[in-house]
Design goal:
- The chain is an alpha/beta fold.
- It contains eleven helices and twelve strands.
- The strands form three sheets. It has a five-stranded parallel β-sheet, sandwiched between helices. Strands 9, 10, 11 and 12 form a four-stranded mixed β-sheet that branches. The protein has a three-stranded antiparallel β-sheet with strand order 1-2-3, with no helix packed on it.
- A hairpin with a 4-residue loop joins β2 and β3.
- The chain is globular.
- The chain starts with 14 loop residues before the first strand and ends in a 13-residue tail after the last strand.
């Protein structure tokens, strides 16, 4: 019960049926009218009996249990087909699970009128652009790769505010797709892999809520683009998208790969983004994930990432004094990415990762590990 709020008065006809140490009226019931209320989130992993509570609720409501990967697939394909009509659909692909599932759904809906465009921002993981291109060729869906690294890095010069970074990256994505769309005059829609957590962290959806952070793919398209927005995954959580990916025949090792933010390493570099700082973080990130895989821990972790901090620390390399950058490592376990717990690494694995980063990545002389859960922290730092 991390919010610190509590109910102080029960409505007439209700009695307490559940309490915690810091919230004495955490659940209430009016059995006569079949009304029940809870103050906690049953859907998050931290709620031990949450799945059972939701299961009971479905029974009480007499709800049909027909929300399956197959039904999600059929509904999404039909919606895409209706929206696109006899035109083309441009799909914004990043190489991640969400955009890949979106591209495959579009191909199933409209066939070769699907145009996947991959914008290489220059802020991807080490060698990831080539891997994305190779993977889509294996799917029989070759991508149109746009090298836009200079454009994005130029737009971010001198910018250290995380929300401004996200805004500029979002605007630049739109500008790139506006330019690319001119090559396909019969394109009617732009499809992207927006998820429900992206939406609810960025805007008020069903009732007022605070903006946690702006996601670059939330907020619609400018009229001048001349395309309708298609978001077949907009109402889904990550675990549902992964089930859908398996339903579409994607390899399990790909479906369960760790998420990577749409703005890329720009939001894992706290402070200004430069070519040098991107390269430094790419190398540290590659070592981190490589050692996680080598230790057989990748499947136990929902997301692992390295963050380059805007601080320097004094160190000793050989017999000389250094004054260089600090990298923070973060790894979490989660079911839906709305809440998360930090991962307990074996000490020897953390030791090996830290030693390799400071020895092999020029410009980094200190490694720290983030032990903050969500909430109160977010999974990404920006």
């Amino acid at each position: 019960m991390s919010h610190g709020d509590r109910v102080i008065r029960l409505p007439e006809g209700f009695r307490i049926v559940g309490s915690t140490t810091n919230s004495p009226w955490a659940a209430m019931a009016d059995e006569r009218r079949h009304f029940f209320g809870i103050q906690f989130h049953p859907e998050v992993r931290h709620t031990e009996a949450g799945e059972r509570i939701l299961d009971n609720f479905l029974d009480l409501c007499g709800a049909r249990r027909d929300w399956t990967a197959a039904s999600m697939r059929a509904e999404a394909v039909e919606r895409i087909r209706e929206r696109v009509g006899d035109g083309r659909v441009i799909v914004a692909v990043s190489g991640g699970v969400d955009s890949t599932v979106t591209a495959l759904l579009c191909r199933e809906a409209v066939g070769d009128r699907t145009v996947p465009i991959f914008v290489d921002t220059g802020m991807l993981r080490l060698d990831e652009g080539d891997e994305v291109e190779r993977r889509f060729e294996e799917y029989g869906l070759p991508i149109d790769r746009v090298d836009a690294a200079n454009r994005f890095l130029t737009r971010l010069l001198g910018i250290d505010d995380p929300e401004e970074k996200r805004r500029r990256i979002g605007h630049e994505f739109i500008a790139v797709f506006e330019q690319e769309a001119r090559r396909f005059p019969d394109a009617r829609c732009l499809a992207q892999g927006t998820l429900y957590p992206d939406v609810i962290e960025s805007t008020s959806v069903r009732g007022p809520s605070a903006t946690i952070k702006t996601h670059h793919n939330v907020g619609g398209l400018p009229d001048r683009l001349g395309l309708e927005l298609v978001e077949p995954l907009r109402d889904l959580f990550k675990d549902e998208v992964r089930r859908l990916g398996e339903e579409l025949g994607l390899p399990r090792e790909f479906v369960w790969r760790h998420p990577f933010p749409g703005p890329g390493l720009a939001v894992r570099i706290v402070g200004e983004v430069t070519v040098e700082r991107v390269r430094m973080l790419q190398l540290a990130d590659a070592i981190f994930l490589g050692e996680v895989r080598a230790a057989g821990l990748y499947g136990e972790i929902a997301q692992a990432l390295a963050v380059l901090l805007p601080v320097k620390s004094v160190g000793v390399m050989g017999d000389a004094r250094t004054y260089e950058n600090v990298v923070a490592l973060r790894a979490v376990t989660t079911e839906d990415f709305m809440t998360a717990d930090w991962f307990r690494f074996p000490a020897d694995v953390l030791d090996r990762i830290a030693r390799r980063i400071v020895n092999e990545v020029r410009g980094i002389n200190r490694v720290v590990y983030d032990v903050t859960s969500k909430p109160p922290g977010t999974i990404e730092w920006e």
